[in-house]
Specification:
With about 300 residues, the chain is α+β, with helices and mostly antiparallel strands. The protein contains 7 helices and 12 strands.
């Protein structure tokens, strides 16, 4: 059973309220930490991804004796302690050189973990241009059929979106789009590239878009995986009923956002419809007699 913590003062009470379940979740925090054996490449890569994730990130300066695939209890403890549901762990060994593990947790229990090998790494400092602005939302682009056809790559795509998509907003300012992250699968490798968006004058209302690489630039190799089954994923992604938008009958929107309505009416008798009175449309005496005789015959049949 989970231990129930009673607040001793108002500060602890506010901290516990921030960690309670909410209808609209806060932006997910991410943990960045290293194992007992690490390399300079792994340390620099963690710093670069930490800079991309800020301010919703926590970094550990000291090394930690953690082995995610053997025992995830320490990761779950760090997650509960720092109220984080995402993590990136770096390590280095002879068997698995320059190794990182990306994972996420549900209810402070490890949900998914994917291990990636680091190759051809270039830090942000090796590029001339500066990176993204603090707190900006990146545009995520995924290229490659394997992201759609293979289950492991599809789960990796979902994990990367969960990791880097940032806060949920209703509107995005065009000038605020300054960062693009691309992930491309080709010949068993995942190529991660980062670009800075520049809007130039084009002589029209639509600006001319230019991309300049800013780093980090890295090639990933897929290694070990530990993925949750579909039932747990369904439970973790379940939405409460209060947040679901209620559908209104006979009201819809087209591709351009125009609101369309459908009105249902009873069948009308057009013979009794009041129209403009014109001499040419008036019934003659014989037409009135024939219409009257028809209505009289109908009433006699019904009786």
């Amino acid at each position: 059973m989970e231990r129930v913590v009673k607040p001793k003062n108002q500060r602890v009470k506010r901290a516990l309220e921030r960690q309670e379940a909410k209808l609209i979740e806060n932006t997910k925090n991410a943990l960045f930490f290293r194992g007992t054996h690490s390399s300079e490449v792994v340390s620099m890569l963690l710093k670069d991804f930490y800079a991309l994730k800020k301010p919703d990130a926590v970094v550990f300066q000291r090394k930690n004796d953690v082995r995610p695939f053997e025992d995830a209890s320490k990761i779950e403890f760090f997650s509960r302690k720092n109220d984080s549901s995402l993590f990136m762990f770096g390590s280095h060994s002879k068997k698995r050189p320059n190794n990182i593990v990306i994972g996420r947790l549900f209810s402070h229990q490890v949900l998914d973990m994917i291990e990636l090998g680091v190759e051809n790494y270039k830090s942000r400092q090796s590029f001339k241009l500066e990176g993204n602005i603090l707190g900006s939302k990146p545009c995520l682009i995924f290229s490659g059929d394997q992201f759609e056809t293979e289950s492991t790559y599809a789960r990796l795509k979902n994990l990367l979106i969960d990791f880097f998509h940032g806060p949920t907003v209703s509107q995005v300012r065009l000038a605020g789009l300054d960062h693009v992250m691309t992930f491309t699968v080709f010949e068993g490798k995942i190529y991660c590239r980062n670009y800075r968006i520049s809007l130039k004058k084009s002589g029209t209302k639509v600006p001319r878009v230019e991309l300049a690489e800013v780093g980090p630039s890295v090639d990933f190799v897929l290694r070990r995986t530990q993925l949750a089954n579909d039932q747990i994923i369904k439970e973790a992604s379940r939405q409460p009923k209060a947040t679901k938008v209620k559908t209104v009958k006979n009201v819809s929107r087209d591709a351009f956002g125009t609101k369309l309505g459908r009105v249902h009416m009873k069948r009308q008798d057009f013979s009794k419809l009041q129209t403009r009175k014109l001499k040419g449309l008036k019934q003659t005496l014989t037409q009135k007699r024939t219409s009257g005789s028809r209505s009289h015959s109908r009433t006699t049949k019904t009786h």
